[in-house]
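User: Can you recover a sequence for this backbone? Please restate the input before giving your answer.

Assistant: Of course. Working from this structure:
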């Protein structure tokens, strides 16, 4: 049953106001309006700072998962799929993966078909995978130590496509120590493709539920895992996955000290301050938000002050935004705010000297002559006054 053949009418409340398609990952803005995550992220990435429906100015760019609406949609889809013959063919694929009598070749064919169906069919049919329990099954297949790398890569590809559509309880599988150790081993020994997919799994562990918080805390407690994620920042086309995984780990406060000890602050700053950052300015904002959060810890602030590379990286970002690019200006504002916080402390004389040597005065003067916001300019003036007062 392809999308063009479906005649079921979707309730208006289940459609994204931007794409007009059925919600896949509903999220809510500070205005109370709900949109599909991919649609609203694209809207914000274009520099829009208003709610598309109400046109109210967004005082907070946070987007909150709408679990209630997602649950209602899944209940509605479950009723539809009770009469959907497509479910029967998926049951056959599930049996192939579960059966001990299935050969590796047959299982690979099943995975290839699942992967193709995830792309070809509409969200109505995609949700069948979840209703039939494919997500926990695929995760079990991934964490089966007997499967070859090629099988694991394909199974993870299927998992990544289903994660945005499902609830997070299938990740409870990682609470089992043997499965958790296999997860760590895959991250350490796996291919770049496997590591990137595992970052998506980690990203999905970020939630307000106590169950997902437990999984997230367990993941972030592994220094080896944190180190492996930070190493991914240096691989081309893996930066986004790595930063999103780090952001997910930051959602659990118990992980933050571990990230600081691993050198996450310096690694992220150096990555964002590089020329590659301009490929995805929104990724820069996410990375800088992580740094801002980690520097809020005493250990994080101390780590920043003791890192000349981090300070010079922040200085470089002070005047790095482009006109009419709100996301890149936000990076500049965060950089100025972090340097201001550092320089306000009397004992941070070394940090001030590093900032001055890095050219902070010139950067601030250029920023003050730009078209940045009044808030950013106010912080820049305060920082400039604080720095120049040391020369008097």
């Amino acid at each position: 049953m392809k999308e063009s053949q479906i005649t079921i009418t979707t309730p208006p409340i289940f459609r994204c106001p931007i794409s007009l398609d059925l919600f896949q990952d509903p999220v809510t803005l500070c205005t109370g309006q709900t949109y599909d995550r991919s649609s609203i992220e694209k809207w914000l990435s274009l520099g829009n700072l208003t709610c598309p429906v109400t046109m109210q100015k967004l005082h907070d760019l946070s987007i909150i998962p709408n679990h209630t609406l997602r649950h209602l949609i899944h209940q509605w889809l479950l009723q539809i799929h009770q009469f959907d013959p497509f479910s029967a063919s998926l049951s056959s694929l599930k049996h192939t993966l579960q059966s001990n009598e299935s050969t590796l070749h047959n299982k690979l064919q099943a995975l290839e078909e699942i992967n193709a169906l995830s792309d070809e069919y509409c969200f109505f049919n995609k949700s069948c995978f979840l209703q039939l329990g494919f997500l926990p099954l695929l995760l079990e297949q991934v964490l089966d130590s007997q499967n070859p790398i090629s099988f694991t890569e394909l199974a993870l590809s299927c998992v990544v496509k289903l994660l945005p559509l499902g609830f997070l309880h299938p990740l409870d599988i990682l609470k089992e120590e043997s499965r958790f150790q296999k997860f760590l081993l895959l991250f350490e020994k796996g291919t770049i493709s496997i590591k990137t997919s595992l970052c998506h799994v980690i990203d999905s562990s970020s939630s307000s539920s106590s169950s997902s918080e437990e999984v997230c805390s367990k993941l972030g407690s592994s220094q080896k895992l944190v180190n492996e994620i930070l190493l991914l920042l240096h691989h081309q086309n893996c930066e986004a996955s790595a930063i999103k995984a780090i952001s997910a780990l930051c959602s659990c406060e118990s992980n933050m000290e571990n990230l600081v000890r691993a050198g996450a602050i310096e690694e992220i700053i150096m990555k964002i301050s590089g020329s590659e950052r301009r490929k995805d300015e929104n990724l820069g904002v996410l990375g800088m938000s992580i740094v801002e959060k980690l520097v809020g810890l005493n250990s994080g602030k101390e780590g920043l002050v003791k890192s000349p590379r981090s300070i010079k990286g922040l200085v470089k970002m002070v005047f790095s935004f482009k006109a009419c690019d709100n996301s890149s200006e936000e990076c500049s504002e965060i950089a100025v705010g972090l340097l201001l916080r550092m320089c306000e402390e009397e004992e941070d004389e070394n940090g001030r000297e590093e900032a001055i040597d890095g050219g902070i005065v010139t950067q601030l003067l250029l920023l003050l002559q730009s078209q940045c916001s009044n808030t950013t300019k106010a912080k820049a003036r305060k920082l400039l006054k604080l720095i120049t007062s040391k020369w008097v």
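That completes the design. The first strand starts at residue 26 and ends at 28.
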